[in-house]
Amino acid sequence: MLKLEHIYKKLGNFTIKDISFEVKEGEYFVILGPTGSGKTIILETIAGIYNLDKGSIYINNKNLSNVPPEHRNIGFVYQDYLLFPHLSVRENILFSSKVKKMSKSSAEQALLAICEMLNIEHLLNRNTSVLSGGEQQRVAFARAIITSPQILLLDEVSSALDPCTKEVFQQNLKTLHKNLNTTTIHVTHDFNEALYLADRIAVMNNGEIHQIGTPEEIFKHPASEFIAKFTGFSNLFKCKVNDGRAILSNGMKFVVKNNKVVNEGLAAVRGENVVLFLNSKTKSFENKFKGRIVEVINQGFIKKVIIDIGIELNSFVTEKCIEDLELNPGKEVYVGIKDSDIQIL
C-alpha cells in the first residue's frame, strides 16, 4: 500500500538515511524511537511537506515523490494538534473538506458521522481555545479523517495527555482504527503505547531504522543493544557463548537457547523475567541462583528489586510479591531465569 524506498533527507545538521519500509493496507504501523531520532521527519516526507534528497515514496504503486501535499490524500495529526484559533470546532473540522472540495452535503454528512464516532457533537459551536487537551485531540482527529484519507499520520498524539486520559485515548484510538481500517503510521517514544497499538513496529535512532517486526519480535528479540535498552531490557551483561552457555566476564554461566559460538556478545534479560522465590525446590528453571537483596526501589505499582548473585540483577515485581515474600534489603532469595528469556545480542 505504502512503500518508502531508500529515503534520504538532510535538514540542517540532521539526516534521515536510507529509510525503506512497506506498510500494508489497513495496518497500524508504529515508528518507535527516542526524541530527536527523525520520526516526525519521516511523517512529513510521506505527507509531502519536504522534497526528498533521494529515494521514492509509493502509494498503491503510484510514485508520489513529487506530488504536492494537497493531492496525496493523507491525513495528519500533529502533537500539538494545530487547530485554528479563529475558527469554531465545526469550522476546524470542515476545513480540510473545503481544501479537498467535497460537496457541502457530503461534508456535513461526514461531519455528523465522525462527531458521533468521537463523541464531540456537543463541541461543534465552541471556540477551540476553551477545549481541554483531550477535546482538542478529538477535534484534530475529526479534521484529519473527514475526507477519508488513504493514510493517517499521527505524530506523538498522546504525549501531552495525563496518564488516565492517555490510557482512555489509546483504547479509543484502537477502536477507531478497527472501525475505519485506515492505514495508520504513528510515531511515538512510548514503547508501552507501541506495544498496545501496533501491528508492526519500526525502531528508529539517529535517522536510521534499526529493526522492523511485530511487537513480540521487537520486545522479546531485540536486534541490538540500543533496542534492548530502549525497550526495557534492564539486565545486560558482556559474555561469550559456547555450547548453549553464556559465560560472563566473572566466570558466571547462564544456560541459553542460543547454541551458536559468540566470542563477544551481550546476554540480555528483561527484569520482569527474573523470578524471585524463597524455597529452591519450589521452582524449576534452567538458571537458578542464590542471592541477597541489595535494594528495593519504589516505581509505583511495580517495584524494582536489585539482587546480588555474584553480579547485580534487576527484577520487577508487584507490591503483592514484595509483601508475600517479605522482600527487604539483606534478605536471601533465589532467582530463576528461563533459558528462553535470555537473549544473546
TrEMBL record:
| GO MF, one annotated term | ATP binding
Where's the ABC transporter domain? 2-231
Please name the InterPro entries in this protein's record.
Answer: AAA+_ATPase (IPR003593), ABC_transporter-like_ATP-bd (IPR003439), ABC_transporter-like_CS (IPR017871), ABC_transpr_MalK/UgpC-like (IPR047641), Mo/tungstate-bd_C_term_dom (IPR008995), P-loop_NTPase (IPR027417), Transp-assoc_OB_typ1 (IPR005116)
- The answer on whether this UniProt entry bears the keyword ATP-binding reads yes
UniProtKB keywords: ATP-binding, Cell membrane, Membrane, Nucleotide-binding, Translocase, Transport
Q: Which domain of life is it from?
A: Bacteria
**Entries under Pfam families matching the protein:** ABC_tran, TOBE
PANTHER family, per this entry? MALTODEXTRIN IMPORT ATP-BINDING PROTEIN MSMX, TREHALOSE IMPORT ATP-BINDING PROTEIN SUGC
Give the protein name, as stated in the record.
Answer: ABC transporter ATP-binding protein
Q: Which organism is it from?
A: Clostridium weizhouense
